[in-house]
Predict the 3D structure of the following.
Amino acid sequence: MDYPEPGKFGYGGRVTSQQWQSLLCGTSAANSIPPMLEIPSPDFSSTAATTYDIDSFIAKAKCLSIARKGLRVQFSPSCLKNICTDVHLYSKIEEKLLSGKRHIHQVPLHHIPHFYLGHLASSLHLPLYVFLPELWSSNLNKNSYVSNHHLQQWMDIGFIPAILQHYPSDIVQHLPVSFNSASMNVFARGRELGIQGGRFESGKRQELHYFLSGRYLKNV
């Protein structure tokens, strides 16, 4: 090929059109046909198959009996376990205005007040959340935290009495009997060690889970 000599032309020299064609197209004065790249044709005899990779899913449950293998619950849950990122799901919440009219809001799921109840015993990656849409208000900050007052009411009036009623004594004897009792157990270890917690006292907490057999969850 008629490549230009670097020492002769350099950056300031002139390159002829034939030499540029030789450099860029791979042709020469003797052969003006550019080289051909031969790619083997693929084998179309095999059929293509489609596979799916599901990295996450979400479900709306109306009964705790979905945890057939049992449930590991927290009777004093931490707000740090709340859903804090947008999962691109919304829920319709009706709000009564001061004028007496009612307005329907499309509220992102992670803005609705909720708390972490526990996870399915079959997998640590299947958390269970309880949503309380009636606590949502457009006048409040966009956070999903539930106060200890409302948590205590939900646990002491509804959840814990139902467990004490339907579960046998050999299971109940290992469970806290109230929200305050569960909270004291959670922070007992931190107080014994004299740990100074931060904003949410996360350093003082001991994340205690209690196992509930799936046999009695439907009645609860």
Remarks:
- The chain has two domains: 1-40, 71-85+113-219.
- The two ends are 86 Å apart (CA to CA).
- The chain has a mean pLDDT of 81.
- The first helix runs from residue 6 to 9.
